Amino acid sequence: GIEETICSAKLRQNIDNPARADVYNPQAGRFTTVNSLTLPILSFLRLSAAKGVLYRNSIMAPHWWTNAHSVLYVTRGEARIQIVDHRGQAVLDDRVRQGQVVIVPQNFAVVKHAENEIFEWVVFNTNDNAMINTLSGRTSAIRGLPVDVIANSYQISREEARRLKFNREETLLFTSSGRSSQYGRV
Amino acid sequence: QQQGQCQLNRLNPMEPTVRIQAEAGVTELWDKNNQQFQCAGVSLIRHVIQSRGMLLPSYLNTPLLAYVERGRGFFGIMNSGCPETFQSSQQFQQGERGAGSRFQDRHQKIGQFKQGDIIAFPAGAAHWAYNEGNEELVLVCFEDSGNSANQLDQNSRRFFIAGNPQQGEQQQGQQGGARSFQKEQFQSGNVFRGFELELLAEAFGVSTETARKLQGQEDQRGHIVNIDQGLRVVRPPFSQEQEEREERQEQGQYGPRAN
Questions:
Q1: Is A91 in the B-facing interface, judged by CB distances under 8 Å?
Q2: Interatomic CA distance for residues B134 and B245, integer angstroms
Q3: How many CB pairs under 8 A join A and B?
Q4: ipTM value
Q5: Residues A53, A117: contact at Cβ < 8 Å?
Q6: Which of A6, A102, B207, B242 is the most exposed, fewest CB within 10 Å of its CB?
Q7: What pLDDT digit, counting tens, does each position of B2-59 carry?
Q8: Could A145 and B128 be called an inter-chain contact, meaning their C-beta atoms sit closer than 8 Å?
Q9: How far apart are the C-alpha atoms of A128 and A131, rounded to whole Å?
Q10: Contact B206/A113, CB-based, under 8 Å?
Q11: What pLDDT is recorded for position B259?
Q12: Which DSSP state fits B245?
């Protein structure tokens, strides 16, 4: 086998191709990542990237990047984005549209909501294997908690805790009923 | 003194300077503004958790090492995407459905800790801890904000994902006190607070009432809460005696275990 060295390193990978999606929800959209596992040269750069597409009336789960800052560049459409810091303050609550850039610091919680049109963006991450932790959905931190911890953390019944835990089966991209867009504050 | 240069020609022992009181425990902070901490790029906090007290789930932008100075209990770390491998069996429940609802749950792995243990918490991984013993649980936590895993500035920031930490009562120590930034960690809301209620309800597929509970505005308990009835989770036997008893039972069935 030929050892991959810098000279013969693969330098390019397309992330627009839907067939390369890592997360796909036919009703809500897709999310494609490129990191040092799929493009080894990135381990030298210690950077990674991702492409997201959210269909109209869809939500990207509230999440945080556990090990990287994330620079988001909108390539199409518009969405409402909220970013929350460690004090629970919304440091950004805005409609972001094509051509704009938003910086999401490491660990800051983010939610994106494509209300009236499709929303497409690219992210650049300051870690070659940037990881997302979600707050809702099947692979979320909340899902990982015991029911009792949830019930006691939020002072709710066990039944309510189960609903919080299990009501969303999707992992990252959700369809929305559009209820929340009526209350948008922006 | 040159800009940014450390002054290490005189060192001195330090006491915690701030105490943040909560319903079932207190957190003491060493003043991170102190030159010695600044130069080392670290901060130190000590959680003293009452029996049946739980430190609410949160995550940090720095890796954390916790030393169990006293007591025992169990903890959970939510690693993104890891499966819920601690699970009560489904069939078992079916059989017993008639006998009232049996405890059923599935969640990520739970670890046990006891005095003398060191526990490692990666940066960005949400975690919680519970005092299962009858005595106070004392956790001395070392936060390495100079670590390469922290991509923010030199301040470690704790993001609570539950409760209303700002309800903690703060008491000042003798020496001045930690910089407001440090105290802020335990005196602000949880991350759900900043999201719009409707969007939150959508994201979880629950009612706005439940979403409001997520935000914890009315929660008066602070960051360490009391769980009267004790915490029920799916978990293997934790105590050593229990484990030895089970092992003996096994031997009884199969004879002494060959070396």
A1: yes
A2: 22
A3: 217
A4: 0.78
A5: no
A6: A6
A7: 666 777 777 778 889 999 999 999 999 998 888 888 888 888 999 999 999 999 999 9
A8: yes
A9: 9
A10: no
A11: 45
A12: H
